Amino acid sequence: MLPQAIRRKMNLCTGDLLEARIEAERIVLIPKKKRSRRGRIIKDPLTGLPVLTAGPGAPKLTSKQVAEILADFP
User: Fold this and answer.
1) 69 and 43 in a common domain
2) What is the predicted pLDDT for the residue at 24?
3) Which domain holds residue 71?
4) Whether the Cβ atoms of residue 21 and residue 28 lie closer than 8 Å to each other
5) pTM
6) Strand locations in 1-74, DSSP E?
7) What is the pLDDT of residues 17-40, one digit of tens each?
């Protein structure tokens, strides 16, 4: 497990993929392609109602993140 301070600094979440390399007898971890961390509100194709989505495979959103997303909703 990576220390919390490193995860915060690198904006990493549980489930993010990392590439591992060996360089000069050290293990180097490189984040793979970043997923969008920004949730958005879309129109549900079945109901026509607005729904919050962060895309497939996205990490769970905290209540603070949901509040920030909803603050931008018209």
Assistant:
1) yes
2) 94
3) 36-74
4) yes
5) 0.42
6) 18-23, 26-31, 40-43, 50-53
7) 899 999 999 999 998 866 555 677
